[in-house]
Design brief:
- With 408 residues, the protein is mainly beta.
- It is 9% helix and 42% strand.
């Protein structure tokens, strides 16, 4: 059998045996001319130095990669690499300097109507958009660093921008200084894992109409407003960190009209609002930790059938806030740092129900400037009065089985 296979290889050639490699030197014929000369399946290697390139179209399956020190510079003239076919790989390049346009989406790598492409281990700096991917599927964006230093949202773009896509994975990237770290619109079956998005001007992650997607093990830190999840169903968000989103309109996570989804084992730390939810239904929130936030959770009256189970609330100014006395959601078996009940039968569950909505939180909801009195003796008196005889806080927003010990 071994000799038979060897004979076949001699007769027909080994797989990929006809693929060629082109080495591109700075200042030579250039990347565009090399692509024109290459055939499908060839490899193009950019040698160290600065390669000037603007609107270079990749219209055949190719691998384009760089040796250490290879820089593709757009000269501030627009999008740099334009991918318009399938099976393209771009790796190990430093791509920089798209310039800014207020009417066109300049990107380091712009992809349209493509599938089965890989973009990995690239350093992308001083660009409006890092990756702008439209009407494409089976794309992997992996282990790239995208960094710009924009100061206003108008002139900036997103680190990874997806518009109409299927089966796209964005993993292991680090994105800073863009408008949104990752922006997704009309994406189905997306997987966003292991990314770090910090100090972006607007959102670390922003997505709309992106059903059946998973967001796991990401870090969203010190972005303008945190993460916004809108108009989507069947979303899973697990083991993410939402940190240091501070400001009057900032939150770690916004859920707006999200249905049939899971928020599990996430950490919300040091945010003005840990999570804000409105118009959302049948969301299961389990194993999350809200620690040292202003509001841990703000859940509006138009949310229904959301379940909070085995979560941890600790060190927050307000554990739960709402804008109504109506409560169509369920809180059960959570740990509350401010709970002062007792457990006579020692089953680990408090014998006294816990009402997590403070009267003062309801007052602040209707009159935000009242927050200045948060640490006053008057507010402490309000809390005592409401705990003895609840009258204004939501009567049914109660945890009937609060945990006595913080889960590990």
């Amino acid at each position: 059998m071994r000799y038979f296979l060897f004979a076949i290889l001699l007769l027909f050639g080994a797989p990929g045996a006809d693929a060629r490699q082109f080495d591109v030197v700075p200042g030579g014929e250039g990347l565009a001319a090399t692509i024109a000369e290459a055939s499908a399946g060839d490899r193009i290697v950019l040698l160290p130095g600065i390669h000037s390139a603007t609107a270079v179209t990749i219209d055949k399956p190719l691998t384009i990669e760089g040796r250490p020190g290879a820089i593709v510079d757009g000269g501030g003239q627009g999008s740099i690499l334009l991918v318009e076919t399938n099976n393209v790989t771009i790796r190990d390049l430093h791509i920089r300097n798209t310039g800014v346009s207020y009417s066109r989406d300049f990107a380091a790598v712009k992809v349209e109507n493509a599938k089965d492409c890989l973009f990995e281990n690239n350093l992308i700096t001083d660009v409006a958009y890092g990756f702008h991917i439209a009407r494409s599927s089976a794309i992997l964006v992996r282990s790239n660093t995208i960094h710009s230093a924009f100061t206003d949202q108008t002139s900036s773009g997103n680190g990874v921008h997806i518009w109409y896509g299927n089966n796209i994975t964005i993993t292991g990237n680090r994105i800073t200084g863009q408008r949104d770290g990752i922006y997704l619109e009309f994406l189905k079956d997306g997987r966003i894992t292991g990314n770090v998005c910090e100090q972006n001007l607007r959102y670390g992650l922003h997505f709309m109409f992106s059903d059946r997607s998973e967001y796991e093990d990401n870090v969203f830190r010190a972005n303008g407003a945190g993460v916004a999840v809108m108009y989507t169903k069947n979303v899973t968000m697990r083991r993410n960190r939402f940190e240091k989103s501070w400001g009057g309109a900032a939150y770690g996570l916004l859920l707006k009209e999200i249905n049939d989804s899971v928020v599990e084992d996430n950490l919300f730390l040091d945010n003005s609002i840990g999570m804000h939810a409105e118009g959302s239904t049948r969301v299961k929130l389990t194993g999350n930790t809200w620690d040292r936030n202003g509001w841990a959770v703000r859940i509006m009256g138009n949310c229904e059938d959301c379940v909070f189970h085995q979560n941890i609330f600790s060190g927050n100014a307000f554990d739960v806030g709402t804008n109504t006395r109506r409560n169509p959601n369920r809180f059960e078996g959570n740990f509350w740092g401010d709970y002062r009940g007792y457990d006579l039968d020692r089953d680990g569950v408090g014998d006294v129900p816990y009402h997590p909505v403070r009267l003062f939180a309801m007052l602040v909801e209707k009159n935000p400037p009242a927050l200045i009195f948060l640490r006053s003796a008057f507010v402490s008196l309000l809390d005592v009065m409401e705990s003895v005889a609840p009258a204004l806080t939501p009567e049914t927003l109660v945890d009937e089985a609060p945990l006595m010990r913080r889960p590990k």
